[in-house]
Amino acid sequence: MLQNDNEYNEILKAAFIFIRKAQYNAILNTNYILIKRNCQIGNLIILKSEWGNKFIDNLAKDIKREFPNSTGFSVRNLKYMKKFATLFNENDIEKYNLGALTWYHHIALMDKVRKKEQYIWYVQKTIENGWSHNILVLQIESNLYLRQLGDKTQNFNNRLPDNQSELAIQTMKDPYIFDFVGMREKMIETDIEHELVKIFQNYC
């Protein structure tokens, strides 16, 4: 029996949705592992904080020597990892769904939000509304957290569909993610899947 073009197109659309959803979920899982790794490195730095800034300088150089193709271990970024670990422990990452945001989002939050409860509030609102890094910064700079305390009429339940969410798009394109999985400049999809599987196996 010949396939019906309309029915086939519907099947094809459904397949595309499942594929994109699986890809996004894989990236989110990888992002969770990346955030957890950053927290773990931050804890190591805190553990030897009495060694001072020279310790972080040496750590950055030695990590770069061991992983020459990685770009996420600058002195500045290691200091962010330390700051993140002072705010949250590893259990908090799952508790507050911190792995749903990119590291760029967390850097913005660490730069602009002083109190932990406000930080967590912005995390939840970013997830609910699919805010990109830039939109999150605008919301923080406009004091949205303080304004919402006096305005109970705001509706944060109108979420963007996943495939239109700025947060989803930014997460898929996050260079920290692809640096984390060891992505080469021109990498085919099966290579990406292979790298992701290797990471998951290492944490199982």
Kindly describe this structure:
The chain has 204 residues and is an all-alpha fold. It has one domain. The protein has eleven helices and no strands. The longest helix is centred in the N-terminal third of the chain and has 43 residues. The radius of gyration is 20 Å and the shape is globular. About 9% of the residues have low confidence.
Fold topology:
Layout: H1 5-47, H2 53-66, H3 75-87, H4 90-95, H5 103-112, H6 116-129, H7 133-141, H8 144-149, H9 166-173, H10 175-180, H11 189-202
Helix pairs in contact: 1-3, 5-7
Give a short overview.
The chain has 204 residues and is an all-alpha fold.
Q: Judging from the principal axes of the Cα atoms, what is the shape?
A: globular
Q: Percentage of helical residues? A: over 70%
Mean pLDDT: 80
Number of domains: 1
* Rg from alpha-carbon coordinates: 20 Å
How large is the count of helical segments? 11
Largest sheet, if any?
Answer: none
Given as residue ranges, the uncertain stretches (5+ residues, pLDDT < 50) are 153-164, 183-188
Q: Tell how many strands the DSSP assignment holds.
A: 0
Properties at a glance:
11 helices; 204 residues; single chain; mainly alpha
